[in-house]
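Handout, section B. The chain below has 413 residues.
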Amino acid sequence: MVNNHFHALTHRNFRYYWFGQCVSLIGTWMQNIGQSWLVLKLTGSPFLLGLVGTIQFLPVTFFSLFAGLVIDRFPKRTILMVTQTVAMLLAFILSALVFSGKVEYGYILVLAFLLGMNNNFDMPTRQAFTIEIVGKDDLMNAIALNSATFNLARIIGPAIGASMMAFLGAGWCFLLNGFSFLAVLFSLTRIKATPYVRPKKPGTGIWSEIRDGFVYIANDRVLSQTLLLLVVIGVLGFNFNVLIPSFTQSVLHMEEGTYGFLMSCIGVGSLIGAITLSVRSKGGPRMKLILTCSVLVSVFLSTIGFTRNLYVTGLALAVLGICNILFTTSCNSTLQIHSKDEYRARVMSIYSLVFTGSTPLGNFFAGIAAEHLGPDGAFILSGVLAFIPIVCIILYFRLRKPAANPREETSGA
């Protein structure tokens, strides 16, 4: 089974890294659910909840391009040791504030910003590090397995986190998340890989290298289409942390347990999608799958806005989770496999910019929409606004004359 379907696990380095992530990501999802519910309890405002997400992801928007240049110049394992340690300390600080009774909305905003600055380096480093420990042939399988881990944690983490909040308080979510980072730090100490460090070209400045990366992407049909679709989905398709808490309270009229259940439904769907992709990863990513899933994401976003039954909502979120993970994993694999070695870190930093960095805009939009239209209206509006540019992007690249590039054919473009 491992050799046939999960062949990335045959790599010793990836096994250590993957098992460390299995533990750490459960803690991360416990913190995510705990922080969202804590902010809503402290403020009662969907807008202020959305502002936390905006502040947390804002550093990626402004600094991810510079991060790509830094990541290229240092061993990625070393960078991850630093970023994971910082994330652990921030989780411990938040737990201490909650346990001491001194937690305030302003403190959460500051910690969210610091975590965002840290993630600005952590996320593209993890993306570029994967190919160093598995190689190109097993890259898509490794990304799918990482996605499966992420989404299994999305099931387990919210379930544990909701129980923790109900019986012990949100502080325990943050404390256990802090300890969970020890697993990934240990795994990084066991990894022995030959890092790719790009030598600096004489006479080139920071802005010149950033511009060179954008020109490279703009001239590549597969990379540019993939990143444009990621912009749309990043802004409008991943605002669950803002909309689901509000939807739980004001539409379904339920509490923490239901919130945890709905977040776990997304995780169940995403896990199904990740496992499906991992067992079918040998053929590589397909552009047709990316296009289809981007359309389905917009459709199911609007569908959720019309639901009023808990189980129908959960089912719709599960289907949306499947589409989301098929879309994001295929995009991630396409960008990494399609990029040249000397451009990969810059491409993945731009990936972080257009995907994660677009989240502040999405969270801000979702918060305002939920404040004025309700969370159900925000879901409907998000779906409609996503559908229009997705169709335009697809039609543009269908009508555009294909470049003579054999790699585009292998990507299904």
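Note. Residues 403-413 have pLDDT under 50 and may be disordered. Compare this with the example in section A.
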